[in-house]
UniProtKB/TrEMBL annotation:
Domain called Origin recognition complex subunit 3 N-terminal: residue spans: 100-241
Region (Disordered): 33-68
BP GO terms, sorted: DNA replication initiation
Any one cellular-component term (Gene Ontology): nuclear origin of replication recognition complex
GO molecular function: DNA replication origin binding
Segments traversing the membrane: none
Protein name, per record: Origin recognition complex subunit 3 N-terminal domain-containing protein
Amino acid sequence: MNNLPSPLSVSVMQDRSTQDGFAQDAYQVAYIFDPQENTPQPLKKRKLTRQTKPEPIDESNTPSFAPLLNGAEGETFVRLRRERFEQAWGLVNGRIETTSIDQIPSAFIITGPNIAPQDLLFEQLSEALPRSYPDSKFVRLKSSEALTLKAALKKTIRDATNVAAAGREDKIDGGVDADADAETTRDDFKIGNILDGRRYLDYDLEALEAYVKPLQCEHVFVAFQDSEGFESGLLSDLITLFQ
């Protein structure tokens, strides 16, 4: 016969387990969170750095050249190199700006495909330039009148001297010598304001120089009315001679 526990012993065991359970719950940790909404939160303190005003940079003392020797060159030597460069370049630049021996002041005017208004334009130029430069001459060259270098030079010299002859008849013998009508095939003429009476070839630019020098003429304007009609080699030769 099995020994079964009595009802009284079972109830006592349950009471003990219940007491042990309450004992364990009594020692458990509990946290209560109760925020106070009306309490202002403390502000975080930020670390402020003192801002210093940038000092003005003296550009005159700041070297504009990069230091040599991988940056080992002193600032004093860098500034000295800059000063020496500015002095040397000032002399060279002065000669460049003031000396233009190999240059001819020129302008290129594009009138478009319509050549009808070109005559009026060049007439206005021939009137305006002498007003701006009183001691000057104006010559117009057309491609049909200057097929060769000699023809272009003849046209330039004759027009420059004839323009002046209209107002200064005492300075030139009508552009040619007295018996030019009888000897139209001659290629020389006499400049009237030359004391020695020297004759020049009518395509020699020395004749033009001999004429304008006593008149103190500083400018002889040569306008290529239809520059696109001139041969490139002819233009190159004329510009070379005009220099």
